[in-house]
Specification:
Blueprint (H helix, E strand, L loop, with lengths): L4 E5 L10 H15 L7 E4 L3 E5 L5 H8 L5 E10 L3 H13 L7 E8 L8 H15 L4 E2 L6 E7 L4 E12 L8 E5 L5 H11 L3 E8 L6 H14 L5 E8 L1 H10 L2 H22 L4 E3 L12 H8 L6 E2 L7 H10 L3 H4 L6 H5 L10 H9 L3 H10 L2 E6 L7 H4 L1
Bound molecules: adenosine-5'-triphosphate.
Length: about 400
Amino acid sequence: MIFDHILIRFGEISTKGRNRIKFVEQLRRNIQNVLTDHEGLKYEVTRDRLYIHLNGQKHEDIAEKLKPVFGIQSFSLALKCESDVEQMKQASLEAIRNLYKKNDSFKVSTRRADKQFPLDTNELNYEIGRHILINTEDLTVDVHNPVINLRVEVRKEATYITCFDYKGAGGLPVGASGKAMLLLSGGIDSPVAGFLTLKRGVAIEMIHFFSPPYTSERAKQKVLDLTKELTAYCGEIKVHIVPFTAIQEKIRAQVPENYSMTSTRRMMLKIADVIREKQKALALITGESLGQVASQTLESMVAINDVTSTPVLRPLITMDKLEIIKIAEQIGTHSISIRPYEDCCTIFTPASPKTKPKLEKVSRFESFVDFDEMIEAAVENTETVIIKMEEKSNDFESLF
Ligand SMILES: Nc1ncnc2c1ncn2[C@@H]1O[C@H](COP(=O)(O)OP(=O)(O)OP(=O)(O)O)[C@@H](O)[C@H]1O
């Protein structure tokens, strides 16, 4: 069957009151971005739907690309006809004829956005259902549990007939909730934190701390590869790579060993905050999960977080490691994260870091060093690259 439209349902956006127009506009832009390779598509936005006119393009590729777009609750292949009973009957029959198998059951579910339409939903269900039964063989009606649910959406300007729904990614359109900077290590957790933040409509840029020669080019490549996996959800992502060797060496030389981890995290957060301000982002994101390691106790968070009043989002804070790993596998980052290349933190990890560091103590240790100048130099020498989306096929259905 030739479907001529894709009908997209928004889900959570519909409830966003006055911001709705902004949200829908952002979703339309995000959809257009993932479909740039498909020429001739036309977009039409109504109060609670977005329609893509396919103009003869095949729907299969387009449907695949829509699956990871946040802000879509569900979408359906659709056939458009005039809002006229005879035309609806014909189009419904055409839609179902090419779809059903022997002994399938079906149901017609009409929805009238146009309340002035002369027939009510029951009458329309009956008229269309009867027309289908008369003109097909081996089909039965089952209003409770049908194999085919033929949906007829009657609007003033047109009627859309759909019979096959895809589940969307849910969440909010990326960019609709502002922008934040993700501190991305090469580990399992931070890419998952990035994915979950994107899902809530926040655009992200990455910040990675890199300590050559202690960490290799391959460790850097790992971070770029992780970023590439996340571009499936947002098109492209900027990565800021911060040279961190000098600061780490200074910490090792000047701060007592059991406080070096706390101090390292504080410097990371300070630098990230400067880059955040330059990039006009509103928050920082980390992959921390409560109690996972020494630097992720509440006491550590108090001592680390003290360097900034910028909101630090920690989407994984209450999650178990196994839950995090499961998402990492589904979004395709896990196999990259477990590559055996070193991260700057693992190399400098002290034998027994303080699990309950005192804020006064770490501040005092740091007061003997002029870190500000080193932070400025690190920001100045930061390298920025843009990673663009790559076509890939994740198991999106099982994810959402
Ligand atoms: N080299 C780095 N560059 C950027 N951010 C980092 C780096 N190392 C750690 N972080 C940030 O600090 C968080 C905590 O790091 P840590 O190594 O303690 O924990 P983790 O649970 O192993 O996290 P991950 O799996 O993301 O590495 C990370 O999730 C990440 O947000």
